[in-house]
Amino acid sequence: MLFKGTVLKKRSPSTGYIKTFDNNEIFWECRGNVSGIPIVFLHGGPGARVMPSHHSFFNEKDFFSIFFDQRGCGKSKPFCTLKNNTIQNIVQDMEKIREELDIDKWILFGGSWGSTLALYYSITYPERCLGMVLRGIFLGTSKEIDWFLTGMRKFYPEANKSFLECLNFSETENPSSHDIIERASDLIFGDDMIVSQRTSNAWSSYEMSCSTIDYKLREMTGDGAASMAKIELHYFKNKCFLKDNEILDNVYKLKDIPTYIIQGRHDVICPPLTAYQLNNRMPSSKLVMVDDAGHSAFEVGIKNSLFEVLNEIKNTN
User: Fold this and answer.
1) I need a labelling partner for 226 at 20 to 30 A (CA). Which of 29, 49, 194, 257 fits?
2) Is residue 115 annotated as a catalytic residue, yes or no?
3) Which pTM value belongs to this model?
4) Choice among 43, 234, 266, 295 that is catalytic
5) How far apart are CA 25 and CA 292, in angstroms?
């Protein structure tokens, strides 16, 4: 599988902000070899941020890696903003970063929500894509959102119990995804800041605790939990600003874009069926099913598979 068409231009490792049409300031950072293969890292969530550990994916000798905090996330301003926070506008932010850095084409590297964003960007701007490396596929459909809110409880009942209790549901109530979204919205966007933060912590901790094959309670607190919960709720309430099956219905436009799909066999957050369906619709894609892994990019099997793919890309350029 070849990723061809890299255009090398004069660049330098640096950081900065781009200003958007609506006065958001999007933080970006470049690392690695200025003459290397351009690859943009798309973080998950929606509502997460770039972490120092994400830099470890890319060999700085071979890749020119670009990182940015999406709208409302991390170092981008204003923090936790929901105004104009849509997948369409994030894609336009990516284009502005690409133009700012004078990159002709780049590889898209994203997992979970990052895979959604990579696919939507590539459908919108296929001429700007050298290829994609995707992990833990999420396509933003109502069915996937419903699974996240009501299906995961079948596999992580103890984590779900803590989550529902924080939303003031009893374990026997079996709330629907609509009920959960409405209750969480009332608490997180309410006037009581203590309740808001506590509920945000519970929302984000639930997701983090279900991300690996070996269950472990992982507590997420502070600003990171707040942005994750608020922005995810915003997207879930608006069906990720996508028509149902919009991405699958349009991947025919990506027939010439080489794509690797890395998927944990035991991913409960983004079950493997979605990755399988995407692979079937994309003849230019290769699916790597990792048997001993869940959702997290840092599961040993997932991370090793990502490194193998990146090494293959390096050797074909």
Assistant:
1) 29
2) no
3) 0.94
4) 295
5) 40
Please tell me which residue in 76, 112, 205, 285 is annotated as part of the active site: 112
Cα dihedral across residues 132, 215, 152, 43: positive or negative: negative
- Per the annotation, the verdict on 170 as an active-site residue is no
Which residues contact residue 15 at a Cβ distance below 8 angstroms, ignoring those fewer than 6 apart? 27, 28, 29, 30
The answer to whether the beta carbons of residues 260 and 1 sit under 8 Å apart is: yes
pLDDT at residue 11 in the model: 58
**Side-chain half-sphere of 172: how many Cα atoms within 13 Å?**
0
pLDDT of residue 152: 95
Tokens found for residue 195: 């309740």
C-alpha 60: how far from chain center: 22
List, for the chain, all residue ranges whose pLDDT scores fall below the cut of 70.
Answer: 1-13
- Cα-flanking dihedrals φ and ψ of residue 260, to 5°? -105, 135
Domains along the chain with CATH numbers: 15-141+244-315 (3.40.50.1820), 143-240 (no CATH)
Residue 157 phi, psi dihedral angles, 5° rounding: -65, -35
> Length of the chain in residues, anyone?
317
